[in-house]
Amino acid sequence: xxxxxxxxxxxxRAGAAGAGAVIASRLPTPGSASAQDATVRPDPAxxxxxxxxxxxxxxxxxxxxxxxxxxxxxxxxxxMYDCLIRRDPRDGQTIIPDLAQRWEVAPDGKKYTFHxxxxxxxxxxxxxxxxxxxxxYQRIASPPKGVVIPRTPxxxxxxxxxxxxxxxxxxxxxxARPKAFMLGAFASGWNVIVRKKTLEENGNxxxxxxxAPGTGPFRHxxxxxxxxxxxxxxxxxxxxxxxxxxxxxVYHMPPFSPELGSALLTGKLDYARLLDPVSWRRAKxxxxxxxxxxxxxxxxxxxxxxxxxxxxxxxVRRAMHLALDRHALVDVVKDVAPxxxxxxxxxxxxxxxxxxxxxxxxxxxxxxxxxxxxxxxKLMAEAGHARGLKNLVFLVxxxxxxxxxxxxxxxxxxxxxxxxxxxxxxxVSQWFEEAAAGNFDLGISAIVSxxxxxxxxxxxxxxxxxxxxxxxxxxxxxxxxxxxxxxxVDEGRRKTMVRQAEEVLENDPPLLPVSYEKINxxxxxxxxxxxxxxxxxxxxxxxxxNVWLASx
Length: 552
What we know:
Elements: H1 7-13, E1 22-23, E2 40-41, E3 51-56, H2 71-77, E4 85-87, E5 95-97, E6 100-105, E7 111-116, H3 130-141, E8 158-165, E9 168-173, H4 179-187, H5 196-201, E10 218-224, E11 228-233, E12 247-252, H6 258-265, E13 271-273, H7 277-285, E14 289-304, H8 314-323, H9 326-332, E15 339-340, H10 355-361, H11 370-382, E16 389-397, H12 400-417, E17 419-426, H13 428-437, E18 442-448, H14 454-460, H15 476-487, H16 491-507, E19 511-524, E20 527-528, E21 548-549
Parallel strand pairs: 3-12, 3-13, 16-17, 16-18
Antiparallel strand pairs: 1-2, 4-5, 6-7, 7-9, 8-9, 10-11, 11-12, 13-19, 14-18, 14-19, 15-19, 20-21
Helix pairs in contact: 6-7, 8-11, 14-15, 15-16
């Protein structure tokens, strides 16, 4: 079965392409190698070329996209690369061709065959072939010693990667996975294709390679650390006519900061990502500007060290879970960062309990917290801690949102359960070191997933020995259920099992969900072709190949 996006679906999904955008009148037929696969085309009267100035967090500590998990990398590097397949930049959702012009999935779901484009060149002039795809994905699926790649668990079912010829490659799975999950993994913006030779020459570690050759729409020109990354149009780009702008300047700006907002509002930037709510509202009200918000692949949470008594007791953890007033916590940071209430599963995903149902019926998420607090006190008494707890070390990342929340959560726990905490604020990198070493009782941070599909973060966030399971939490019943969800291909049965998993997490919390982050984008209306309002997260659609600047 061929997994193409048909013309009708493509046009329907592209309906929200943004002010001034004109959808391509001709879209690729299945199997074609058309250069128009993933583009929104400007009106012929619109001005081409120019320089797009983009402001966002873009100061990576290394340059290996595969080993990274931060927007600091992908903001400045993604425009130089392509993926095997990608998310449509017009809606951020639909999966469409990229370096693979078409693909087939075997009826049993255990074989994915990709047909690659001919004539694609890396920035250094080398020809792109299936060997580059194999080298890229072998490193992702089975990293060599010393290389850690957060997306490796997505490809745990892959047993073999076989080059059939220079432009065909086959991924063989030990057992089937849900098709949407696997295609989403291949389409992740993190999984860019790099040269086999580049990997070999650098010992499979690109952390210190500033601009490893890619095939993307832009190529590296220069970079000033913590200032600006400059790229120019790739004149040999396989997708003819793209990109539309001649030059891309990615300016490093602190997220949710007044500096970022000011740079956009005063016209020093054309486009800004991670705006603070005050600047975002101002941009939304300013003539000649547009501002939108969209969901992000991040949960803000308090971790509880299960190795520190009595936090190993699920009754104590659930009591803390019920003691939090999440609506008040979202309100605390409303002028600092955009947040929304949610539980252990993305509240906007079709497999999870709908947000309205969550807030209306489930203890711990209702605006009226009295019933939840009553249950929390009962649980603490049953656990033998009716008088509360003292001297818990509360590890806090030195970020404005976490510092505000920590004070509020400290007060909530003291007032409702007589749990006393001592705040210990540390720098971002130190937080992860302290958390990994277990030097805390409670700790507040944010963690990221690659996909919205629960099978991704059920392993990474909540899995036994998961890379982001800072609570050291285990629950055999949950882990068994998560393995079943990972293998189940029937969406109806998966939904039932995800709801069951939610129930386990509610009663035996691995962490305390505080909120889910949203992203605020703003831009001047001379920028066309970008419509992030339907995106999920900020990692999959950051190539800027389909954006153009209108005449001024």
